[in-house]
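User: Design a sequence. Structure:
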């Protein structure tokens, strides 16, 4: 009786293996058919619907060359490249408004910090610097210069606070030695600033 059960189990295992192998073979045939169909559809000889691949490649190469040349020009003028943006750190100090005006004249704006990685990059300049953050429109409603509200923030403990009853409506990197380094400050004080230009 044990022998019969052993033979029966062995037969079932062989049948199951054959079924799995057959299913796998059918899947392979289906995949090959699908690949061929898609390739034929993509490489159809109908030129009215198929773009000229060589023209597209040449155009992309030309666009890349233009971007690389633009990037090189900015770097020669003292800008720093980081994660698809260019950053300019001023060598002089100015008010928040005049700092922003300088950035705008350079085709940029005061820096907008969107990630921990960017925050840590900005801190590396080891300077008190204006950033593009302000609550001049509505007290305690902080917005970036592009009108968006911060999705991530790095305020120091108890900041922003309009310390001593002062009108502190502009954001700065103050405590650059630590990650939570943002501080609110009076906009008419003079500090170094950082411009950001997205590529």
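Assistant: Done.
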């Amino acid at each position: 009786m044990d022998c019969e059960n052993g033979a029966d189990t062995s037969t079932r295992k062989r049948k199951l293996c054959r079924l799995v192998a057959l299913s796998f073979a059918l899947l392979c045939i289906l995949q090959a058919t699908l690949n061929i169909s898609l390739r034929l559809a993509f490489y159809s000889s109908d030129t009215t619907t198929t773009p000229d691949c060589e023209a597209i490649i040449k155009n992309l190469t030309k666009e890349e060359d233009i971007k690389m040349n633009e990037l090189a020009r900015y770097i020669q003028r003292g800008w720093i490249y980081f994660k698809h943006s260019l950053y300019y750190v001023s060598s002089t100090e100015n008010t928040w408004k005049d700092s922003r005006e300088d950035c705008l004249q350079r085709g940029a704006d005061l820096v907008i910090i969107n990630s921990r990685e960017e925050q840590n990059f900005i801190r590396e300049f080891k300077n008190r610097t204006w950033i593009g953050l302000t609550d001049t429109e509505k007290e305690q409603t902080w917005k970036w210069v592009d009108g968006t509200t911060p999705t991530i923030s790095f305020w120091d403990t108890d900041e922003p606070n309009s310390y001593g009853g002062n009108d502190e409506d502009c954001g700065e990197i103050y405590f650059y030695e630590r990650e939570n380094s943002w501080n609110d400050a009076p906009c008419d004080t003079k500090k170094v600033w950082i411009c950001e230009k997205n590529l």
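DSSP finds four helices and eight strands in the chain. Residues 2-42 form the longest helix (41 residues).
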